[in-house]
């Protein structure tokens, strides 16, 4: 970094005709500012090494695994070769220690070895007893595990780091960047078994060049490398939107772009394959005189030069003509078929690939089924498990909703949102490919008598917090304000560590940051989770999702469904039951009996119930924002306001809004809608494993 910055400064001085210091500073003000930006960014990059101690078991100080791990790590820096990649393992069976290193493709060998040595010591200090860990920094990556990972593509965990400066023309910048990354991705994936790295630059807006470097571990296949980099590319909009630079790092691949040259181009060229030797020039025939020899030689040179130049002109013209024709043709096809999803076209999977992965959508692979189709478990050729949402041809979700979900999820990246891997279209078939979330959906655990015991209060509280952070990201932290409109227990998936992931964005709506409310005549969602202003007047806002979240909180605490609740001999709704018990000072009656007898904090449970009741108030303006909810959940010292009655009450004839500011016609309409929903819910009540998107659709 220092050498590049010094060279940049030296070039500024040498190019300036002024020796006077003041004159030099005045003439090179912008260059010095740019140099300062480079120095600050690269200093931050070097100082921001990231360590992840992963949950794959622990070991003790003098165990066999500890000995094997030390032996494996001690050989890494010594044995790494000029290509920057090395893997090793020690031991047998469950005590085997596997490790690998990957230095950035432009780093010198000595610098690579220094980085590995530093990373090794840092990992052992930061993760003293974890069997699996990884460390990234600007120059290298070091990882180890008790599980074999050689030749396995892994995109998790993932680390992001972004340039603090914004671009002046984001749309043009993204357009140029996308083309550059696509080109470099193909070049990197085409690398051999020793190196898979590519770097280059393109001219961007405001006369700025965009530089990028992409790299995979060379143990991956071409397809796996490409898939890993595509996955890294899809994380750029969420983490680095509008920024001049970004780094996305995963165990199997890395990606970085900046508006300055951050890599050693000379070092990268050292590994470029040598061009094939030129064929020997034809031997000219002998001439009878020296003058004739000179003329002949000169004529041959002229002919050869003219021929080469003419050939180059023809070649360049042909390439330009073919390129324009191909571009025009591809644009025509693109705009004709998938105009609205062109921004995520690189995520498209061949339909046959997904068909094979799901065993031709066999019943054995089916995970769930809902109003918009079925969800299947699949496994790609690289071993990655996926969940495939196959939209039914007669479903309410047509091409518009399908593209809506693709566009949304391609731009959304958060640990509490289900991650979109790609999509596929063939004829009437429309598929969405997601990460497979190993455990079932939340409703499978909290409403099933056999499974709800797996959720103690600590896990339930973690789930509530994760859902809240996911919704907050949608409302405030993502590029666009997004209203989910179908938050419910079956749309919350749980991973292996019981972390919640919000799924099903088919009904989501995008808002500009200055928009606060929308209206619709098509009411979609699920009975029991929708607020009154949405059911009666078709009005939705971020407070609609807040209401749904409040219902979820009460369900998680009580272990009971909001729309199918029985208290003794009486049938009522969960919201009324929780409100009445809270008002009478006996809120503990609402808590799941399994939690009451457990070790969880009852005061924490009752505080969460209080927050839930604040979220389901009838007046949307009285409900808190998700930002406030996250703060309430994270700090017990913040006082909570007294909630008003929930939005609905149950009275023999059906559900009705509590307050009188709705007209009689609106109140009657709400009763009819909710009664019809209740009958449908009673007939089709079921839960589904990993139901990535199961949505009930009922027109108003």
From TrEMBL:
Subcellular location: Membrane
Protein name, per record: Receptor-like protein kinase At4g00960
Record-listed ATP binding positions: 389
Compositional bias of kind Pro residues: 273-287
Biased amino acid composition, Polar residues: 676-693
Topology class, membrane: Single-pass membrane protein
Membrane-spanning intervals of the chain: 300-322
Keywords linked to the UniProt accession: ATP-binding, Glycoprotein, Kinase, Membrane, Nucleotide-binding, Phosphoprotein, Receptor, Repeat, Serine/threonine-protein kinase, Signal, Transferase, Transmembrane, Transmembrane helix
The reaction(s) this protein catalyses: L-threonyl-[protein] + ATP = O-phospho-L-threonyl-[protein] + ADP + H(+); L-seryl-[protein] + ATP = O-phospho-L-seryl-[protein] + ADP + H(+)
Domain Protein kinase intervals: 361-648
Region (Disordered): 271-294, 676-700
SUPFAM superfamilies in UniProt: Protein kinase-like (PK-like)
InterPro entries named in the record: GNK2, GNK2_sf, Kinase-like_dom_sf, Prot_kinase_dom, Protein_kinase_ATP_BS, Ser-Thr/Tyr_kinase_cat_dom, Ser/Thr_kinase_AS
GO terms, molecular function: ATP binding; protein serine/threonine kinase activity
Ranges where the Gnk2-homologous domain occurs: 47-149, 155-262
Key word Plastid present: no
Keyword Nucleus: no
GO cellular component: plasma membrane
Native organism taxonomy: Eukaryota, Viridiplantae, Streptophyta, Embryophyta, Tracheophyta
GO biological process annotation, one example: response to oxidative stress
């Amino acid at each position: 970094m220092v050498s590049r910055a010094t060279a940049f400064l030296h070039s500024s001085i040498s190019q300036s005709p002024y020796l006077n210091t003041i004159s030099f500073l005045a003439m090179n003000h912008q260059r010095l500012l740019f140099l300062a930006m480079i120095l600050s960014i690269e200093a931050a990059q070097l100082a921001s090494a990231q360590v992840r101690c992963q949950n794959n078991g622990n070991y003790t100080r003098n165990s066999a695994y500890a000995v094997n791990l030390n032996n494996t790590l001690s050989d890494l820096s010594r044995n790494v070769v000029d290509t920057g990649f090395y893997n090793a393992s020690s031991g047998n069976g469950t005590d085997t220690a596997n490790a690998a290193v990957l230095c950035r493709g432009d780093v010198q060998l000595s610098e690579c070895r220094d980085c590995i040595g530093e990373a090794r010591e840092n990992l052992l200090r930061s993760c003293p007893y974890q069997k699996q860990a990884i460390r990234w920094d600007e120059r290298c990556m070091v990882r180890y595990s008790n599980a074999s990972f050689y030749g396995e593509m892994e995109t998790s965990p993932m680390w992001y780091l972004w340039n603090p400066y914004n671009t002046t023309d984001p749309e043009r910048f993204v357009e140029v960047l996308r083309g550059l990354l696509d080109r470099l991705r193909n070049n990197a994936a085409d690398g051999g078994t020793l190196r898979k790295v590519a770097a280059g630059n393109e001219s961007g807006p405001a006369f700025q060049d965009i530089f990028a470097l992409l790299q995979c571990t060379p143990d991956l296949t071409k397809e796996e490398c490409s898939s890993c980099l595509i996955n890294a590319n899809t994380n750029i909009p969420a983490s680095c939107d509008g920024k001049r630079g970004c780094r996305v790092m995963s165990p199997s691949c890395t990606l970085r772009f900046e508006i300055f040259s951050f890599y050693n181009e000379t070092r990268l060229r050292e590994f470029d394959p040598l061009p094939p030797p030129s064929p020997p020039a034809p031997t000219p025939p002998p001439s009878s005189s020296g003058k004739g020899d000179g003329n002949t030689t000169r004529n041959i040179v002229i002919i050869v030069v003219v021929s080469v130049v003419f050939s180059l002109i023809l070649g360049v013209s042909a390439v330009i003509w073919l390129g324009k024709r191909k571009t025009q043709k591809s644009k025509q096809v693109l705009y004709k078929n998938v105009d609205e999803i062109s921004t995520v076209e690189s995520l498209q999977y061949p339909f046959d690939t997904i068909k094979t992965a799901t065993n031709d959508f066999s019943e054995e692979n089916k995970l769930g089924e809902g109003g918009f189709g079925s969800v299947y478990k699949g496994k790609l050729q690289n071993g990655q498990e996926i969940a495939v949402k196959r939209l039914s041809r007669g479903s309410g979700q047509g091409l518009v909703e399908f593209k809506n979900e693709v566009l949304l999820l391609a731009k959304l990246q958060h640990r509490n949102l289900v991650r979109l891997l790609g999509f596929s279209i063939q004829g009437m078939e429309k598929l969405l490919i997601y990460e497979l979330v190993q455990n079932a959906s939340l409703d499978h655990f909290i409403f099933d008598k056999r499974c709800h015991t797996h959720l103690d209060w600590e896990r339930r509280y973690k789930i509530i917090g994760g859902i809240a952070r996911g919704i907050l990201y949608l409302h405030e932290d993502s590029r666009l304000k997004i209203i989910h409109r179908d938050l419910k227990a079956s749309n919350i998936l749980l991973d292996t560590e019981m972390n919640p992931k919000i799924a099903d964005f088919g009904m989501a709506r995008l808002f500009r940051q200055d928009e606060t409310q929308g209206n619709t005549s098509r009411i979609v969602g699920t009975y029991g989770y929708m607020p009154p202003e949405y059911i009666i007047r078709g009005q939705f806002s971020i407070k609609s999702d807040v209401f749904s979240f409040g219902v979820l909180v009460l369900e998680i605490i009580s272990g009971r469904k909001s729309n199918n609740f029985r208290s003794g001999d009486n049938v009522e709704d969960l919201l009324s039951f929780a409100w009445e018990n809270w008002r009478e000072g006996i809120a503990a009656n609402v808590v799941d009996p399994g939690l009451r007898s457990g070790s969880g904090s009852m005061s924490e449970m009752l505080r969460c119930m209080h927050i839930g009741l604040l979220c389901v108030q009838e007046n949307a303006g009285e409900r808190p924002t998700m930002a406030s909810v996250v703060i309430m959940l994270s700090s017990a010292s913040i006082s909570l306001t007294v909630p008003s009655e929930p939005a609905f009450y149950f009275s023999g004839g059906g559900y009705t809004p509590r307050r009188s500011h709705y007209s009689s016609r609106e109140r009657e309409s709400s009763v009819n809608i909710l009664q019809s929903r209740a009958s449908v819910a009673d007939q089709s009540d079921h839960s589904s494993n990993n139901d990535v998107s199961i949505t009930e659709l009922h027109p108003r």
